[in-house]
Amino acid sequence: MKAVILSCEKIRDNVRVGCLKCFKAIYNKTGNFSEGDIRIIAWTSCGGCPGFPIARLKLIKEMLESEGESFDTVFLAGCILMAEKNFCPMDIDELEKKITENFNVRVIRGTHP
Ligand code: SF4
Fold this sequence. Notes:
By secondary structure, this protein is of the alpha/beta class. The chain has one domain. It contains 4 helices and 4 strands, in the order E-H-E-H-E-H-H-E. It has a 4-stranded parallel β-sheet with strand order 2-1-3-4. Strand 1, helix 1 and strand 2 form a beta-alpha-beta unit. The structure holds iron/sulfur cluster. The site of iron/sulfur cluster has 14 residues, from helix 3. Iron/sulfur cluster binds next to helix 3.
């Protein structure tokens, strides 16, 4: 599995300190990183409210293709799920549908335990 992690621009830490839980789960193969062989090939955010995740993922796809790479899975990071429950203007069901339609990839909700 070659995966992109999509995170909430507001909640994630720009120096990635706040993303330690995701990195720990990747390293320890826990949470939704427990199945199979997962390579995290890119890490991006929605770009900030009101959310531009499809545009961001299109850019990631273009950049990966220019390097001869691709992705087959998108993780919606725990911070996006947390944001959705509180203040996020994005509809996560709709986001999952759009990602699947635009990129023909698997979407997994959540990352670390
Ligand atoms: S609240 Fe939603 S739209 Fe706003 S930055 Fe976070 S994930 Fe993106």
